[in-house]
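Support request, please re-run this one:
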Amino acid sequence: MTPSKDKMNNAIHTASIPVFKQMLGGLSEVLGKAQAHADAKKIDPNALLQARLFPDMFPLLRQVQVATDFAKSVAARLAGVEVPKLDDNEKTFADLQARIATVLAFVEGLDPAQFEGAAAREIVSQAGTPKEKRFTGQSYLLNYGLPHFFFHTTTAYSILRHNGVDVGKKDYIGAY
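Re-run finished. Output below.
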C-alpha cells in the first residue's frame, strides 16, 4: 500500500518539529540541572557556560546558541518562512533558557500544512562559508540539519557531564 499524499507531505514536519521540540526540551532540562549544580556547589556559572571539551571547540554557551539556530533555521526553511533572527547575546543560564523558549515557541507555531512539498523544496545554504550548498528539503533535513543539530545538543550535554553535572541519557533525550 502506498502512503497517501497527505502523509508524505507531512513526513518532513513529522521528522523535524517533534524532534526539535523533544531535544530542545531535554536541553532545557540539562541546563536547569547545570544551573542547580552551579548553585549547590557555589561554582561561578561562567565556569560551566564557558567550558569546552577541547580548546578549538565552542564553549557550552555557543553550543546552545548553535543548536537553537539549527532548530529554528531548518524548521523555517522547510516551512518556507523567513528564518527568525536572534542576537546571540546570551550570557547566563536564564538567557539560554529564554532563547530555547523562543525557539520552541517558533517551531511549535509552524503549521504542518506549511511543510507541504518540503521534501522536494530546494534549500540553498551558505553555512559559514562563501560556497553555497543546494539541497532538497529531505536531504537538507536528514543529511545536514538534524546531524548538525544533534552534534551541538550532544556536545552541550557532554560539556556539562564532563564538568560533573549529574545528567544522564534520560535527561539528554527529554520527554517523548
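Confidence is low (pLDDT under 50) at residues 1-6. The CA atoms of residues 53 and 162 lie 8 Å apart.
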